[in-house]
Give the backbone structure.
Amino acid sequence: MAADLHCPLGGCRKQTLMETWMSSIISFLRDESGAAAAEYALILAIVGAGIGVAAAALGGAISGAINGAAGLITVP
């Protein structure tokens, strides 16, 4: 029988289905590779909301300036 490379002394046992399942779940919970994408999405949402608020405020200011200028124009 060939020697097991993971257990050179031959004292290891095979994992049960439950142990395999639990180690897969734990590995999934520890995996942080998707965290960066979620963080970028959150940053993008915050920046987008800031741009929206700034655009609304700027639009109001421009509208007020145009209305003020229109009020100063006299038609002979």
User: Anything to note?
Assistant: Residues 35-72 form the longest helix (38 residues). Residues 20 and 26 are 10 Å apart (CA to CA).
